[in-house]
Every structure is written in C-alpha cells, then in structure tokens.
Amino acid sequence: MDVKKETVRGFYDRLRRLYEERLPFNRVLGITVTSVTSDGGTMAFSMREDLIGNVFHRTLHGGVISSVLDAVGGLTASASLVPRAAGLSEEAVREMFAQVGTIDLRVDYLRPGRGERFTAGGRIMRSGRKVAVVRMEMHNEDNLLVAVGTGTYMVG
Amino acid sequence: MDVKKETVRGFYDRLRRLYEERLPFNRVLGITVTSVTSDGGTMAFSMREDLIGNVFHRTLHGGVISSVLDAVGGLTASASLVPRAAGLSEEAVREMFAQVGTIDLRVDYLRPGRGERFTAGGRIMRSGRKVAVVRMEMHNEDNLLVAVGTGTYMVG
Amino acid sequence: MDVKKETVRGFYDRLRRLYEERLPFNRVLGITVTSVTSDGGTMAFSMREDLIGNVFHRTLHGGVISSVLDAVGGLTASASLVPRAAGLSEEAVREMFAQVGTIDLRVDYLRPGRGERFTAGGRIMRSGRKVAVVRMEMHNEDNLLVAVGTGTYMVG
Amino acid sequence: MDVKKETVRGFYDRLRRLYEERLPFNRVLGITVTSVTSDGGTMAFSMREDLIGNVFHRTLHGGVISSVLDAVGGLTASASLVPRAAGLSEEAVREMFAQVGTIDLRVDYLRPGRGERFTAGGRIMRSGRKVAVVRMEMHNEDNLLVAVGTGTYMVG
Questions:
Q1: Predicted TM-score of the model (pTM)
Q2: At C56, is the secondary structure helix, strand, or coil?
Q3: Least CB-CB distance to A70: which of B27, B49, B62?
Q4: Buried-most residue among A123, B143, C29, C117 (CB within 10 A)?
C-alpha cells in the first residue's frame, strides 16, 4: 500500500470533516463537501425555508450565498496546502490548517438564488507562501450561475 | 399632527419589521434593527453556539459577518429611498422596496469575530437613481472593529 | 450584402476606435483593441519605461494593470449592448454607449507584472438592463496570468 | 537633538521620495505626496488633458483614479511599517519597504472625476504582521467625494 497517497487522502478527508461537521454555522447551512483535491473543493446544499432572504420570490438570502462561497473558498485554500503537509508533525499540520482565514471576500450576485439544490466550487488563482486567492462560483440544479466570488485567504 | 412625518416614520418602521421579522435567514442570525433613518441603519445580534465558524477560537463564522454586513447595507440602501416614497401609492412603495437587491459585496475581515454582542452600521456613499453604494462596519461590545464592507445595491 | 451584419460590425468598429483613439489615457497606456464581439473584448499593450511601478524589479505599476482591466471590462460591457443597438437612431446609440460607466472594480494582483507584451480580456457574467458584471484577466507573453479582476458597469 | 525622531522623519521622507520620484508611472500621473505619517498618507495631482477618460464630459479616466488610490494605499501601508524600522539595518529597512505590494484592490466610483485638482488619502484598517488593509478616498477641489477604495497589501 502506498503510504504517502493514503496520507494525502487522509488530509483531504480531514478537511471534509472539518468543513462539514466541525463548523457549527456550516451545519446550519446544511453544507455537504462533495469533493476536495489539490485542484479545489466543491460543496452542495439544499434550499430550506429558513435560508430564504426574500419571502415574495422565495430566493436564497444573500448571506447564505456569501457564506457558502466563503466556505468553499476556504476549503480550496486549505486543500492547496495539503502538498506542504507531507512529512509535518501532527501538531504542525493542525496549526497549518487552523491558521487559514479569510482576509477579504467579494461576492457578485448574478441571478436570484432560485432552486432546490445548489453547488459551489473554488479554484486557486494564486498560491503563495502567505496568501492564496480563490475564485468561486455557485450554480443551481439547472446549472444556472447564481453568483461568483473572489476571496483572499491567509495561508501561512 | 404632522401627517407627513408620521408617514416617513411609518416607512422606517416597515423597513425595520421587514429586516427583523420577514426575512427568515435574518431570524436565524438573530438580527435586531436598532435604528433606521435616512442616514442609514444599525443592527445588533448576539453570539450563539451555532454562529461559530472556528471551534478552537470560538469566533463568528465569516459567513455570519458577511450576512449581517449585507443585511445592514441593504437596510441602509432601502432607507435612502424613503424620501422618494412620499406621495407614492402603497403598491408603488412596495415595489420600490422589493426591488432593492445586492449587486456585489466586499467584506474585509479585520479581527477575529470574538465577543458576546455585535453591532453593525451602514452609511450611504452613493445614492443614485439606479444604484446605491454603502460602506458598512461591525464592532463587538468592546467597540473593537471586527469587519468592514462595501456593498453596491440596485435601487431603481 | 447583409445590411444588418454590416451595421453590427460597424458598432464594434466604433467601440474599437473609441477605446483606442478617443480616450486620451488609453493612448498614454498604449492600448490596442485586438478583438471585440458580443462575447467580450481583448486588448494588448507593451511594456514601456514609464509604465513601471517598481524600479528594482522593473514590473508594471499596479495602476497600469487596474487601468487596462477596467478598460477591457468597459469595452466588454459596451460590446454586450450592441445587440440592443440595432434599429436605434444614431443619437440613441451614442447615448447608450456614452452612459456606460464603471460602478466598482476589484483587481487581484496574482504575479508581478513582468514581461514585454501583455494581453487582457473580458467576459460578461451578468448582462442586465441597468447593470453588467464582467470578469477580466491579464496575461503576459508567456501566458502567465498576471492579474484578474471583476467590474460592475452601469449600462442603462 | 533627538536622533530617533530624526530617523523616523527620515523614513517618511524616503517614502515620499519613493512614491513621488522613483516610480515612473507615478510621475506620469503627476502625483505629489502632501503628507505621510504613521496615521497614513495623502497625495495630490492636477487634471491634465492626457488623464481624461471621457472626452465628452472631460472627466478623469477610471484608471487614473484606481492608480492614485492604489498608490496612496501603498504609501499608507508602507508608512505603517515605519515604527518597525527603528533599529533595523539599512538593508533590512530597504527590504521591508521593497516587499510592500498590493494583493487586491476595490474601487468604488462615486461621482464623475470632474475638477482641476484632486487629493487622495489612506487610513489603515488592519495592520498585521503579514497583511495590511487600507481604506482610501479621493476628493476634488470642491471637497466632493469622487471615489473610495479598499486595498489589501502584503507587508511582511
């Protein structure tokens, strides 16, 4: 068995659990991590009554959209660190992931957040020693682009 | 009694109820509207277990911060329309407020969201016929600046 | 001959001349419009001594990068209006293009602006009646991504 | 004579010369540094034919505005490092200032850039070991607010 690959997969599993299970507000949003690799992460969540921001149009609250885009951006920035984790002590790895934080975020609301199931994905644009920049997108189940965003994350 | 002033206060009350009671996700966040005038709006909310984004540091989720900043920005943009509401029909007023929507949002996370009680306020920077720009700030109970943001809102 | 197509090409030519010849600061930057269609526009410019922002590293000034990204975003937003121009009077067309303006701009500086020849392109993300959102990218001659940006433009 | 104060003033003078004289594109823009302290910097420049972006309205090019806001933001971020410079070697100081760079920039164009003389100022919002966040503003000679911006700068 290839220990190194196993370990790398272990880091991604850990990130998945962190974003899905250990962040209380992500549970409020009902976020599921659908993939996470060094290329970035993807998430999904379902429309629910209490995620609504506009009662007339029954669309997602803008804050739900920005929250999920920030989460998938953070997941993507964290995943970009996995190659640096190989060989580090457990404590160093934990510290490395713990220090990932959003510096700033821009969200562009392109269409009303209408739908039953939404997916969000992130792509690394800059991967520096200290700072990562990620572009994010959110689609509904008809593959309509609901929102895009850009986040700058502290990574070191 | 000055009917016109009464009406204006009525519009602000309506906005307060809209943001506090009628937007399901604002209730999830526990937002209270603490003031709303033509100069802008202010909101407050309390730390709660399920608003946490970082279990180690017990700080607010970035999405909670962006959600509240967007909400107080939308409230401020809506409040800036009140002077235009005088003399309009009930239906026209409702439509005017209903079409307010976030075009884009930037959030700068300045300090970890640590505290028990947070306040957020908005200030109009541009008040055009079609588009408004608002700058927002969030403080904790020690008056530490946690985050600032800038939002562009459709208003006509 | 297909009159309608000719007219459409005429509008794109007009936009090319506007951005290349009629905006004094675009001439300072040495901008050439390399393509413009309803899908967006592309531009190119060459490194020059007076576009330098960092004398040690001899890299582009950040303001040159933001200026060109804003310009190609404005070109793209304008080009998205061409389908609406068909059948309008000369005066109405001129007014339509004249009112295009940047509401806000975000630029992410991903790599030092090193190179001899730079290209920039825009892609429409939102094309509304009043507001357009464009994502922009700038590469150097080695196809390295130097910067990305997002602009919100008034279009009606 | 208080050597330490002299040295601190020396650092500010050095930053003034750097931004005024040593960055070629700042000379193209005609930027003068009007003040620089640990609280931030201010700049001024005059309208000129070749800074125009809209020939009909004779207003500043959006790129001139974003360039100057980025410059005053960089000056402000650099000035915030001066207290750390005391006691460092000449080489360490040079390196400290040389590594200041814009990570990302948001500009909000609030009013057409009309006027003869423009001033811009920056204020530090976050001053970390690695990253600084600055809010910037630009006024014309009638004290009308033309644009605001927010920049994130690498500082360590």
A1: 0.95
A2: coil
A3: B62
A4: C29
pLDDT band for position D144 (50/70/90)? very high
CATH number at residue C27: 3.10.129.10
Chain B closest CA to D126's CA: distance in Å?
A: 6
Kindly report the nearest CA distance between residue B3 and chain D, in angstroms. 34
Answer whether C63 sits within 8 Å of D61, measured CB to CB.
no
Domain residues for the domain of C63 are 3-154
Of D104, D130, D150, the CB nearest to A130: D130
The residue written with tokens 């209380």 in the block is A24
CA angle D91/D93/D98 to nearest 5° reads 95
Interior angle at CA C43, CA C40 and CA C46, nearest 5:
165
For residue D4, what pLDDT is reported?
A: 67
As given in the structure block, the two tokens for residue B138 are 């969030």
Given CB atoms, is B76 within the 8 Å cutoff of chain C? no
More confident of the two residues B69 and C39: B69
**Tokens standing for D21?**
């004289």
**Residue A3 predicted with pLDDT over 80:** no
Nearest residue on chain C to D94, alpha-carbon basis = C56
Query: CB count, 10 Å around CB of D56?
Result: 9
DSSP state of D129: S
Within the 105-124 window of chain B, which residues sit less than 8 Å (CB to CB) from chain D? 106, 108, 110-111
Minimal C-alpha gap between C95 and chain B (Å) = 17
What is the number of other CB atoms lying within 10 angstroms of the CB of residue B144?
14
Q: Can you tell me which residue has the tokens 């220990």?
A: A3
Q: Report chain D residues whose CB lies below 8 A from the CB of C78.
A: none
The average pLDDT across C46-74 equals: 94
Å from B132 to nearest chain D CA?
9
Whether residue A154 contacts residue A99, with contact meaning beta carbons closer than 8 Å, is answered with: yes
D78-116: b or e for each residue (b if 16 or more CB lie within 10 Å)? bbbbbeebeeeeeeebeebbeebbbbbbbbbbbbbbbbe
Give the mutation candidate from D99, D103, D108 for the A interface (greatest A CB count, under 10 A).
Answer: D103
User: Is the torsion defined by CA of D26, C154, B11, B2 positive or negative?
Assistant: positive
ipTM: 0.94
Q: Report the chain D residue with the minimal C-alpha distance to residue B151.
A: D108
Separation CA A76–CA C99 (nearest Å): 39
How many domains does the structure of chain D reveal?
Answer: 1
Residue A125 with chain D: CB contacts under 8 Å: none
> Quick one: tokens of B133?
């720009």
Give CA angle at B155 (D150, A62), nearest 5°: 65
B72, B120 contact by CB (below 8 A)? yes
Kindly report the length of chain B: 156
Residues C28, D22: C-beta atoms closer than 8 Å: no
Pairing of strands A101-109, B101-109: antiparallel
Contact C152 B152 (CB under 8 A): yes
